[in-house]
């Protein structure tokens, strides 16, 4: 039943509890209790609007491989803290492979990306080198857009 509730909320996070209960075949009280339990357990991490990057003039996506000069724990923590402060970086993943981190960067255009790369990404702690791959088309994208501050 929890999966049914989660599936409905994933499709439409604005459902009222009454509508959600009707869709999953339970009464309102047990649905509310299950939702509270899922929220408390962190399974439901929050509710948000899904924004259109194209309509917000944020359609340019670049993936950036980063190599660091130092991968000891203190250096990784410094990098992780700094990368969280850059709103154009939509995702950041530590990678086991030929490089250390993979970033998904969303900007208005290539000129804006170049500025973000030069002024923000390249100045992150311990960055040795980067390689950029510009996305030409999003075939599947379930990401949530972050707004620059």
Mean pLDDT: 93
List low-pLDDT spans: none
Roughly how many Å is the radius of gyration?
20 Å
**Number of helix segments?**
5
* Number of DSSP E strands: 4
In what order do the strands lie side by side in the largest sheet? 2-3-1-4
Element-by-element helix/strand order? HHHEHEEHE
Terminal Cα span: 39 Å
Shape: elongated
The SS-based structural class is alpha+beta
Strand composition percent: 15-25%
Q: What is the helix fraction of residues, given as a range?
A: 25-40%
List the helices and strands and how they pair.
Blueprint: H1 2-11, H2 17-24, H3 28-40, E1 60-68, H4 73-83, E2 89-94, E3 101-107, H5 110-121, E4 127-134
Antiparallel strand pairs: 1-3, 1-4, 2-3
Helix pairs in contact: 1-2, 2-3
Label this structure with key terms.
149 residues, four-stranded antiparallel β-sheet, 5 helices, alpha+beta
Please, could you describe this protein's structure?
- The protein is an alpha+beta fold and 149 residues long.
- It is built from five helices and four strands, in the order αααβαββαβ.
- The chain has helices at residues 2-11, 17-24, 28-40, 73-83, 110-121, and strands at residues 60-68, 89-94, 101-107, 127-134.
- It has a four-stranded antiparallel beta sheet.
- α1 (2-11) packs across α2 and α2 packs across α3 (28-40).
- Helix content is 36%, strand content 20%.
- The model has no long low-confidence stretch (mean pLDDT 93).
- β2 (89-94) and β3 form a beta hairpin.
């Amino acid at each position: 039943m929890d999966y049914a509730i989660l599936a409905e909320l994933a499709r439409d996070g604005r459902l009222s509890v009454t509508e959600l209960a009707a869709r999953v075949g339970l009464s309102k009280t047990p649905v509310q209790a299950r939702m509270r339990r899922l929220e408390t357990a962190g399974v439901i991490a929050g509710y948000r609007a899904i924004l259109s990057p194209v309509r917000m003039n944020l359609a340019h996506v670049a993936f950036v491989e980063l190599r660091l000069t130092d991968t000891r724990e203190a250096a990784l923590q410094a990098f992780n803290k700094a990368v969280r402060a850059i709103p154009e970086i939509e995702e950041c993943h530590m990678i086991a492979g030929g490089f250390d981190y993979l970033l998904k960067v969303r900007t208005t255009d290539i000129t804006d990306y170049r500025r973000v790369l030069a002024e923000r990404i390249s100045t992150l702690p311990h960055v040795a080198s980067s390689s950029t791959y510009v996305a030409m088309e999003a075939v599947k994208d379930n990401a949530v857009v972050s707004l620059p501050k």
